[in-house]
Amino acid sequence: MTDFNNRKVVVTGGSGALGTAVVGALLAQGATVHVPWISQAEVDRFPYRDHRQVTLVETQLVDEVAVSRFFGSPGALWASIHIAGGFAMAPIAETDRATFMAQLEINLMSCVLASRAAVTAMRQTGQGGRIVNVTARPGIEPRHGAGMTAYATSKAAVAAFTQALAAEVIGDNILVNAVAPGTLDTPANRTAMPKADPTKWASPDDVAATILYLASPDNRVTSGGIVPVYGRS
User: Which of 7, 100, 156, 193 lies in disulfide reach of 78, CB 3.0 to 4.6 Å?
Assistant: First the structure.
């Protein structure tokens, strides 16, 4: 079992469906977890909100100053996992500039700003670290992005950013990777797609296991990887 005992880990989007699975797995392995949030309703549903090893801080992830302040909180940072993002589905004729830019902001810039702050924090320790971003299947298989071009483009940018950053910081022993989920087996997706077969989808717990390995000290050689986590879909 991977040991995160007493290691500080940031999880953006930590109170969402996948984030909750990641936070739960990290806590089970002894991590101290810092979760930025913007939705009070999501925090109210978050099962680990009162856990003694969880710190919740209201933070706008597209605000450069706020992100730097959040990552500057006490404690040496070992890993930063970037799940926060948003989804928008619309044909191009109905996708105006504001919609497209909003997807770039919430999916790409939140990841860029968090990664930048994480690298700064990790370099201060001199011990290296791990960054794991979350792209999506349409981000690495763009033909799956029909009808959601803004989302697919923003997630493709996350994948490209991950690989470029990995090459940039490998000399600091900071390993940077991403996972690319397909459809996750969540209550929301089951409701949205009642005719689909959810047994083919990946569970949040299984995707979380892949993320934890990439974020762990056991991962000593993998960097610049974009790992598909599609289940059987």
Answer: 7
